[in-house]
Amino acid sequence: MTQRPGIFPTFFISGFECSTFLWKDKRRRNLIEETQHDRHAQEDYEILHSLGIDVAREGIPWPLVDRHGCYDFSMIDPMIEAMQQTQILPIWDLCHYGYPEDLDPFSDEFIDRFARYCRAAAEYVIPRLHGPYFFTPINEITFFSFCGGEWGWVAPYKTTKEDRFRFRLALCKAAIAGVKAIREVEPTARMIHIDPLVQVVAPRDRPDLVEAANHETYVDTFLAWDILYGKEHPELGGSPEILDIVGANHYSFGQMEYREQGPHQALDPHDERIKPLHDLMQWLWERYHRPMIIGETSGMEAGRDEWLKDVVEESLAAVNAGMELHGICLFPAVDMQDWHTGRWLHNGIYDLVQVGDNLQRVPCEPYIAELRRWQQEFNRVTTLDADPLSDPVELQDVIDAAKRLQPEPDRNWH
């Protein structure tokens, strides 16, 4: 009998890059295709199965399946078949930086159409897979609003703070409508709303920017979550049940120095202004007191194993402080490209190596060894059996490991 059951069947989860945005050149990008996840779905899920990971963030590409309100979900059939074969549960990303070209995201039609799409997607995937069922209606609302609302990287190509605020509000309205539509199909479906957890500081020689930097850190970072929770703009229908599970993304570039124009500048790993991940998680926990996961995290190149060690230790410090942490998502499972340069980032559990027209999956052995070490610390399986749900994650094992190891929050990211 599980003493303290987790929400997910494994503590470590993963996922696949699935962005489908209109890029600066006005061309549609499809990262599912660019990483050949569509061609390698069975192999990719077998990789997760072999790693003892039973939950995967997976995308349904809204602009590719929705043609003027008519749906064709057949392109996700290979993923569904792979999930069926490996018994891996998906967290379905329903909008990952892309929407149909015939929609104006500032219109009421955008909200209505997104809700209809969410309902149709739920009706398609739920009968084909065992539960429980997890959805992320709109991935990284805050970051998407920067990319499309202020920086002009992706559609709708806006370039002002005012447009960013408008775009974020529209995305929040659509997300709330999407949650309600999904739960009309499956009332027990769980929602995971994922956004970056960041800190922004003023340049040392610009004390006049301290207030703006603090506003981004302590107000702007949380506004989308606040709206979904119902703390802000309650007339839109947010509530704790709408917010449900909070997914906090954590990368090395998430602590930044404020810039008045364009993206902020990532802090050097030795910068004394960096705050421990534990502290950032504490802000999130005290604000919502909702179940949490690390929604995405990964190191780069040769530092992936050390990054995982640091993130897990910070997470265990958070658990010791009483936070309800249900998982850490090692994202991506297989490598992905830098959007701007096309350079492979080498941040996956497996790298991608070009062999002819095929992207071969090659394991990052030090990263995997560090994952195995933590699975053993948590008394968890390192490979999945035929029925992973028969042995759900026991959060008490994670809590006991945190008490035994007593990790201290550490600001050093080097």
Description:
- The chain has 414 residues and is α/β, with parallel strands linked by helices.
- It has one domain: Glycosidases (TIM Barrel, Alpha-Beta Barrel).
- It has helices at residues 31-34, 41-50, 62-65, 77-86, 108-125, 141-149, 161-185, 210-218, 223-229, 240-243, 277-288, 304-320, 365-377, 395-405; strands spanning 12-15, 55-59, 66-67, 70-71, 89-93, 134-136, 190-196, 199-201, 245-250, 255-257, 265-266, 292-297, 325-330, 350-355, 358-363.
- The strands form four sheets. Strands 1-2-5-6-7-9-12-13 form an eight-stranded parallel beta barrel.
- Helix 5 links the parallel strand 5 (89-93) and strand 6.
- The radius of gyration is 20 Å and the shape is globular.
- It starts with 11 loop residues before the first strand and ends in a 9-residue tail after the last helix.
- The mean pLDDT is 95.
- This is Family 1 glycosylhydrolase.
